[in-house]
Amino acid sequence: MLPLSALSSSLIAPHLPQQRHVPPPGAARMTADSPDAAASDAERSARVSLAAVAAVGCAETGAITADKLWGGGALGAMCSSVGGGCADVLSGPWASVGPLPLASLGLAAYGGLALLVRLLQLQAACGLCLLSAGLSAAVLALAWRLPSTRRTDEDAEMAPFGERSPAPIASHSSRRALELSERLAARGAKMYGAWWCSHCAGQKETLGAEAMGEGGFYVECSPDGAGAENERCVAAGVKGYPTWEDLSELEEMLSSAK
C-alpha cells in the first residue's frame, strides 16, 4: 500500500509538462569541428598574415625613407654593388613626391594597414594608444638624427684639446709699455711661454694688449698651444715659463712699465 505522498506524486507528475533546458540565443557552444570555429581560426590566421606583411612593408619603406632623408644614399650604393636597376629607381625623378620620398607614402599605407587590422580585431579605438604610437615615431625620427649631431659636437669639443690659445689680454698698454715693446722688438727679444702659464699671463697684462700685439715677440712653447714652436724653445734651452732673452735688463723694463 503506497503512502499518501507517493500516491499524490504518482497522480500529479504525469500531468505536469517536462522542463527542458533551452540555452539563450547566441549561447550555443562552438566545437572544434564546427564551421564557426573553423571560420574563426581562418580569420585569425588571415589577420596575423596581414599584420606580418604590413610589418615587413613598414620596415622596408621605413628604411628607404630614412635613407632618402638622412642616410646619404647608402641603400643606393648597396644596390649598385649587387647590380640591377634598384639604384636608378631610388635616385630617379619618380623617387620623390615633392619634398617627401615616395617610400614615405608606402610607409604610411603599411602603417595604416597594420593599425586597421588591430582596430578591426578590437572593434575599438584608443586615443592614448594612437598618441603613444605617434610619440614613439617622433622619438625614432629624432633619435635617427642624433649620431650626426653628436659627431659634430664631438668635433667642436675636441678642437680646444688640439690647440689651446692663451687667454686674451684685457689690459691696455701704457705709453711706457709701448716704448718698451718697441725696444724689445728692435733688439729681437723673445718671450718664451705657454698658454697655461699664469706668470706669462700676468706679464702680458702688465705690458698690455697693444704692446704684446705690436711687439710680436711671444713664442708659444707648449706642444698643444696654438702656433706652438716647441723645437725653437728646446733650441733656446728654455726650462721654465716665462723665459725672456736678456732677463737682467728686462726686469727693470717691466717694473717701469707698471
Describe the secondary-structure layout.
Layout (H helix, E strand, L loop, with lengths): L3 H9 L22 H37 L2 H9 L3 H5 L5 E2 L2 E2 H21 L4 H36 L12 H13 L3 E3 L4 H10 L1 H7 L2 E3 L9 H6 L7 E2 L2 H11 L1
Parallel strand pairs: 3-4
Antiparallel strand pairs: 1-2, 3-5
Helix pairs in contact: 2-5, 7-9, 7-11
How would you describe the overall organization of this protein?
The structure is a single chain. By secondary structure, this protein is mainly alpha-helical. The protein has helices at 4-12, 35-71, 74-82, 86-90, 102-122, 127-162, 175-187, 198-207, 209-215, 230-235, 247-257, and strands spanning 96-97, 100-101, 191-193, 218-220, 243-244. It has two domains: 41-161, no CATH class; 175-257, Glutaredoxin (3-Layer(aba) Sandwich). Strand 1 and strand 2 form a beta hairpin. Helix 7 runs antiparallel to helix 11 (247-257). Residues 1-17 and 26-30 have low confidence and may be disordered. Its main location: membrane. Belongs to the VKOR family. One of its GO terms (cellular component) is membrane. It is found in: Membrane.
